[in-house]
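Quick one, tokens below. Sequence please?
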């Protein structure tokens, strides 16, 4: 398989289904940001963290490929002329969202309650989680903009939203596991 096709040399790319759009199209920006997020999750998974978190991140990465495929599909070409779906893959569903919620609930049981906002940092691995969380929030902003113009499955938006929450809780758990300090944000008093 050749990696380069030269078809994008003029600033366009093809959606799944064949339609060509500008590389700065909101749809491209949406699934491109999901791809960026997936790369950050790979970096977190490559750190010295517990096996359960690594396995969870691998599962999430596979789900993000599904999210990317959904976002990369031309909505006008979702269904073939014969009535079949163009994407012959399992979709994001409520169980996927609930899985993230259960993971967060388990981690939260072992964490002290939050009383303040927390400054990102404390350990490189924790910082990677916070970067991934903010990339996830950007992906969510882009996806919601796309959704307003070209709706897609609501579960995708729920999954992205819950994933950013998961990454925040994972950052807190890894802080605890790595004995990193959580620095609370204490606003300065107004003079």
């Amino acid at each position: 398989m050749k990696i380069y096709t030269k078809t994008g040399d003029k600033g366009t790319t093809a959606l799944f289904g064949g339609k060509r759009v500008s590389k700065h199209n909101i749809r491209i920006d949406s699934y491109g940001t999901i791809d960026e997020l997936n790369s950050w999750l790979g970096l977190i998974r490559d750190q010295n963290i517990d096996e359960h978190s690594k396995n969870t991140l691998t599962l999430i990465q596979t789900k993000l490929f599904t999210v990317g495929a959904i976002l990369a599909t031309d909505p006008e070409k979702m269904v073939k002329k014969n009535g079949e779906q163009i994407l012959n893959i399992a979709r994001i569903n409520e169980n996927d969202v609930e899985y993230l919620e259960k993971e967060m609930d388990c981690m939260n049981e072992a964490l002290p309650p939050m009383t303040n906002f927390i400054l990102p940092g404390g350990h490189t691995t924790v910082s990677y989680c916070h970067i991934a969380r903010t990339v996830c929030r950007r992906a969510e902003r882009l996806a919601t903009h796309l959704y307003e113009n070209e709706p897609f499955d609501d579960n995708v938006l729920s999954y992205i939203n819950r994933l950013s929450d998961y990454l925040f809780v994972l950052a807190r758990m890894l802080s605890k596991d790595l004995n990193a300090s959580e620095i609370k944000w204490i606003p300065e008093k107004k003079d």
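The longest strand covers residues 12-14. Helices lie at 26-45, 51-71, 94-109, 124-149, 154-177.
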